[in-house]
Amino acid sequence: MPASGSRRGPTKGDQRERALIDAARTVLRKKPLAQVTIDELAAAAGIARSGFYFYFESKQALLAALCETVLGESEQELAEWVESDGLDREALRRGLARSLKRWQIDGRWLCEAFVNPFPGPEIVEIRERVTANGCTAITRRVERDIRAGVTVVGDPTLLALMVVKLRLTMFAHAFTSPDEQTDDDLLDSLTDATLRLLYGTVPTGPTAIGEPLPATV
After folding, report:
1. What is the pTM of this model?
2. DSSP string of the chain?
3. Burial (Cβ within 10 Å: 0-12, 13-18, ≥19) of residue 72
4. 8, 155, 164, 181: most buried, per Cβ within 10 A?
5. Terminal-residue alpha carbon distance, the chain
6. Residue 177 CA to its chain's centroid (Å)
7. Which residues contact 149 (CB under 8 A, 6 or more apart)?
8. What is the predicted pLDDT for the residue at 5?
9. What is the sign of the dihedral through the CA atoms of 15, 20, 21 and 23?
10. Chain-centre distance of CA 15, in angstroms?
């Protein structure tokens, strides 16, 4: 699918467009989009300023194209858990660890694209697709678990949305406040919070499905 806001060209043009996207990923790791110039992005990609506008209408369109890469990456990170059965805590934790690593590297522009309340229409469209894809994958997994007899503690679609938002919020927080917790503490807490949100429980052993939550007093 063509990148949002871009005009497709011949093979050499595709390579230059890819160079701009890669350059944006590198430059936006260091400073926000508002502080980056077209000249800077073009120079980082090894093309003239005028060449930038052949491929992208604006900096926001380039960021939207960069966000397109998240669609495939986020799906791959949790694919092992999405395709497994039962709680499978370790597969979920491994997937979250892969996502955390990406946020630790690209968190600046990921926050700008996925946390900023007003990122621009091109980016909002990509953000909505990323959220929808994540929700669909988790919803299908939960519905499969329900058919297999696993107890789920609410509406699968709403729970999936909550899981996607929780993961986004915590990874953004981890990037902006990296010293507040260790990676292991974050991953353990986020993994268990996700499983409790979906299933009301966490595994009590390496092969256990989990025990009911203790009664509160």
Report:
1. 0.83
2. -PPTTB----HHHHHHHHHHHHHHHHHTTTS-GGG--HHHHHHHHTS-HHHHHHHBSSHHHHHHHHHHHHHHHHHHHTHHHHHS-S--HHHHHHHHHHHHHHHHHHHHHHHHHHT-S---HHHHHHHHHHHHHHHHHHHHHHHHHHHTT----S-HHHHHHHHHHHHHHHHHHHHHSTTSS-HHHHHHHHHHHHHHHHHS---SSTT----PPPPP-
3. exposed
4. 164
5. 54
6. 18
7. none
8. 56
9. positive
10. 25
pLDDT digits (tens, 9 = 90+) for 77-128: 999 999 998 999 999 999 999 999 999 999 999 999 999 888 888 899 988 9
Q: Tokens 């953004």 appear where?
A: 172
Block residue for tokens 């939207």: 64
Other beta carbons less than 10 A from residue 212's beta carbon: 8
